[in-house]
Amino acid sequence: MAPVSKDRRLLGAAVVCAALFCVPLVLHDTFFLRVLTEALMWIGLALSFDVLAGYTGYLNFGHSAFFGIGAYTTALLMMKAHWPFPLALLAGAVAAAAGALLIGLPTLRLRGAYFAIATWALARAIQQFALVSSFTGGPDGMRLTAYLNPQYFYFVMLAVTGGTFFGLWFLLERAPFGLKLKAVREDQESAKALGLNPTWLKLQAMVLAALPTALLGGVFAYWVTFIDPSSTLGDLVSDQALVMVVFGGMGTLIGPVLGAVLMFAFKTLFWAYLSAYEVLYIIILGAVIALSVVFLPDGALGFVLRRRRTRRQAPGADPAPAGPGLAPSEKEA
Amino acid sequence: MPADLRAAVPDAPAAPPGGAEPILEVQHLSKVFGGLTAVNDVSFRLAPGEILGLIGPNGAGKTTLFNVISGYYAPTRGRVLFQGQDVSGRPPYALARRGIGRTFQVVKPFAGLTVLENVVIASFLRHPRRAQAEAQAWRVLETTGLADRAHLPAASLTLAGRKRLEIGKALALEPSFLLLDEVVAGLNPTETDRTMELILGLRADGISILIVEHIMRVIMGISDRLVVLNFGQKIAEGAPRDVARNPSVVQAYLGKEQE
């Protein structure tokens, strides 16, 4: 099928990636590179969060578990088993994928708020486990051997996030998988009549969300050289990814990128100038979610909102339907 | 219109025409919800290429029977044989793969997706590659008269359009057996005629059909045989003209006849 508009957008994404690749070659400011590296990480986290939230219709408040499993597996294998970083990183992704299967099997049968609560509780359980276990260092966390090369981590993060974007684009926007997920999101019972096994599809989506998240966690661990249960397994990882996706626009790939860039810019400025008012940050996050849901329905999930959005044929609901004879202007944002 | 199509209907009501192996056989099927027996010991057969109408007053168990046959409910007792194999209790997606397509009485389009996308999702079952799936979806949209609305959101369709989309999605599965649940109810006479033509066309393509419909003109017009349910039990089976004269059917379904 390959609608022209989508290919053009993909070309745009490739240009952006190429430009980002050139940044360290011309810019040698370490602080700025650090900020960009973290921004890339959040873009990746928002993208992977959207696999379940936007395409499948499941808010995973346990997203942080995948990030933490990736971070801890990488750290443990590097520090205790002396594995090289790339291997430890891949092992973290495998561990998170296995975790996704274990978490997904019981929870993906639940709907709506029950799924959110169940995943939230499981993620808290994993966090507590890391907190009370001795091999993880408990509340003291783990320290990794420092590798002080900001450029290296920038490129690795760019590779993971860029790979995530193009991988998800292929699977969700081009391959049948994305449409099948949307069918499950829209009406699970109806999807079954069309030969789709919703539980299996949702499980695949959860594994697909877990893989890049764990990679990002592993890179994060090696990059910041210190991890503890709250920084990698805590609520804030899931919550911030959620805000970025809701704010940017669920069920698209551009939305999470946009949301991540804007929210991360806000976060960076906030901590630079208002770090004395730490509590305020959480309050603002909550307010952004609430206001996004009410005033930016294009960025919000929910049956009612989606239906209203579709009826109005608002942009962003679903990028360009495929097929011949489509006027690209009709549905494009 | 359908007089010639009914020419082959045999007089013996229990056996499907031609003596061929039935595509669907329901054996002593019961479905109990708590204390309510929604379907009670129902048996019938459907021959390949046959249109079997299922009628009965509201609450007679028609939709429950549909849900058991299409795998949404497991039967409490009895069996469903499809193409000679016991498929009782198999999940709906497994039955769809075997060739059973169904529509829902309360239409269930994927509202946030386009009409084309709705059908493409069903096409993936037989055409895993996207280009082929889309080509097939376009053919289905032509058949169901929805091609001009392919890129509109499914939510924007009228009721008639949604009912056609519902049939289109089932057709895109390339089924050998189709369960149609009130696909005509709520349509105006012109739309009704078009849908009847569509259904007869499907049978001409070799698809066997079990259809629930309240509108007598439709069900009498297109069915080869009728099965009548009342309070979950089969009270009559046979050619439409015979069933219409059957006293118990008249009493239960059409109202008590004046002497």
Give a description of the structure:
The complex is a heterodimer of chains A (333) and B (259). Helix content of chain A is 75%, strand content 1%. Chain A is mainly alpha-helical and 333 residues long. Chain A has one domain: ABC transporter involved in vitamin B12 uptake, BtuC (Orthogonal Bundle). Chain A has a two-stranded antiparallel sheet. Chain A is globular, with a radius of gyration of 20 Å. The two termini of chain A are 20 Å apart. Mean pLDDT of chain A is 84; it is low at 300-305 and 313-333. Chain B has one domain: Rossmann fold. In chain B, 34% of the residues lie in helices and 23% in strands. Chain B is built from nine helices and ten strands. Chain B has helices spanning 62-69, 92-98, 115-123, 130-143, 159-172, 189-204, 216-222, 240-245, 247-254, and strands spanning 24-33, 36-46, 51-55, 77-82, 85-86, 100-102, 177-181, 208-212, 225-230, 233-238. In chain B, the strands form two sheets. In chain B, strands 6-7-8-3-9-10 form a six-stranded mixed beta sheet, with helices on both faces. Chain B has a four-stranded antiparallel beta sheet with strand order 2-1-4-5, covered by helices on one side. In chain B, helix 3 (115-123) crosses helix 4. The longest helix of chain B is centred in the C-terminal third of the chain and has 16 residues, at 189-204. In chain B, 51% of the residues are buried. At the A-B interface, helix 7, helix 8 and helix 14 of A face helix 2, helix 3, helix 4 and helix 5 of B.
